[in-house]
């Protein structure tokens, strides 16, 4: 059924594109990729101008709109035009205003719960086991695995690096301390792997790090929220998750679930060497008393 475009937002359309992208023909994928990456031009330009910029026939833009459920190109374009008219308002502020209008605590918790469940489930629905296993195998075979995630994604990258380090010795967490991120990247080569974590809004340094690694022939494992995200472009392995939230800030639950699924694949596929590494790490942690233990009570005389 065609959409009533007034109720549709640009974010709704990007989700539609992401959901249907793999099923589109190569020509429609080209148009969809351009639309996903150029929302401003899409809102400002005519169908013919957009088609020319996308490198497709004008009729392809109409077919894309209809494939996604719109009557035609104009309905597809309208949400982007409305967004441009509202330009200048902070997205986070806008989302906070909507959140504050969303009803009582019970309703808020129900929406949060539904979003988080969907984000976790997206790891299974958006990825098959073979895709995750292939990424795990690349990490197991690498000389060095450099993990990068900045701003909100830093916590996920840190947890991914920490748990991976329980199983393998070749993991390094990227850091820009002292402006040295670029120094860490230039040491990578085709025998290494860069694991990048990022979701919209994408951190510029992460996007640039992925581009630098890709140009040097370094295989990239991208954990991200869209196959069209800038860190997914040219990545050898793309692992997808959702980041939806009714709150003002995007959820990290999907990213965390994807990271845990990847480490689980490494654990299963690493064989005896990860068993030996884990046993050694466990003994090291025990020796330095890393974890709190209840003191033994002295026996009563």
From TrEMBL:
<dbReference type="GO" id="GO:0003700">
    <property type="term" value="F:DNA-binding transcription factor activity"/>
</dbReference>
<keyword id="KW-0805">Transcription regulation</keyword>
<dbReference type="InterPro" id="IPR009057">
    <property type="entry name" value="Homeodomain-like_sf"/>
</dbReference>
<dbReference type="GO" id="GO:0097367">
    <property type="term" value="F:carbohydrate derivative binding"/>
</dbReference>
<dbReference type="InterPro" id="IPR036388">
    <property type="entry name" value="WH-like_DNA-bd_sf"/>
</dbReference>
<protein>
    <submittedName>
        <fullName>RpiR family transcriptional regulator</fullName>
    </submittedName>
</protein>
<dbReference type="InterPro" id="IPR047640">
    <property type="entry name" value="RpiR-like"/>
</dbReference>
<dbReference type="InterPro" id="IPR035472">
    <property type="entry name" value="RpiR-like_SIS"/>
</dbReference>
<keyword id="KW-0324">Glycolysis</keyword>
<feature type="domain" description="SIS">
    <location>
        <begin position="135"/>
        <end position="272"/>
    </location>
</feature>
<dbReference type="Pfam" id="PF01418">
    <property type="entry name" value="HTH_6"/>
</dbReference>
<dbReference type="GO" id="GO:0006096">
    <property type="term" value="P:glycolytic process"/>
</dbReference>
<dbReference type="InterPro" id="IPR000281">
    <property type="entry name" value="HTH_RpiR"/>
</dbReference>
<keyword id="KW-0804">Transcription</keyword>
<feature type="domain" description="HTH rpiR-type">
    <location>
        <begin position="11"/>
        <end position="87"/>
    </location>
</feature>
<dbReference type="InterPro" id="IPR001347">
    <property type="entry name" value="SIS_dom"/>
</dbReference>
<dbReference type="GO" id="GO:0003677">
    <property type="term" value="F:DNA binding"/>
</dbReference>
<dbReference type="Pfam" id="PF01380">
    <property type="entry name" value="SIS"/>
</dbReference>
<keyword id="KW-0238">DNA-binding</keyword>
<dbReference type="InterPro" id="IPR046348">
    <property type="entry name" value="SIS_dom_sf"/>
</dbReference>
